[in-house]
């Protein structure tokens, strides 16, 4: 059921999004391809004017199923969501919209500044605790500190730093230029903002499981004039249950994230599912510590995995494990760049 609270007044909109133009003025999630494209495949195209009539919900609220939003899907059924509200995947338009699964009829709406598309969205009594590596980043303090010192520490392990990581990722993403990029586990949106500002994508979705990271992300976006007219959306999602239709995404970025995921295999399987044919996955993570040739890999690997399971710490994998993981999830053309404990890897949906 969509309540009037889901459709805030223009005044509230202006308070929340002082730098975002009214969604009624700028609602298009631009899916025009850049003039020059060297792509071996066609990026996701959205026909923003096409509207498919949806079955009339019994609550008397009219939901539209726009082709534009075939992208957003119910995390339970994976069916595209119907939408009530202004079109477009920019922050104010999403904030003013209610969403409903055309199959199970579960409704989803924006919580404060992000659209909550987790399975538990809207639950009142049920809650569950994820592994520490997920819960840690839900803390307001960690989310606040993340871009204010926390992330800079990654340099000690070989991470080249956001600017260089961004340029490296852009190289890998060249075949997806002009398409839709989802920055999963985006944290406070360090890279989502860079991707959005690059102008290389028709739209960017910044997605994370942490409510506080998404709030930080919103703060950074709303203070940045360069982002006020750019198509960028904030979606709360669990990496193991991505709320996007299969084959709907051109590029998935996951910076410094794989080691934090509760199940890297479920996560990469989901990334593979949502990528369209030819779509690119680029990730970075901390590699498992190398013990040189002190023990053979067939002994070292189970030892490390047992330790990781028992300690409930991060899931640090080796380069070979990451390649194997991508391959087993149906991705091809694995490439990587390793610098001490840092790895940037890419793989492609065939
Ligand atoms: C180290 S931060 C990386 C942030 C950013 N991408 C970067 O490159 O700095 C890891 C992120 O993974 C997210 N994360 C952990 N578990 C997750 C899950 N189950 N689903 C989605 N994101 C998750 C955390 O909330 C956190 O923001």
UniProtKB/TrEMBL annotation:
<protein>
    <submittedName>
        <fullName>Uncharacterized protein</fullName>
    </submittedName>
</protein>
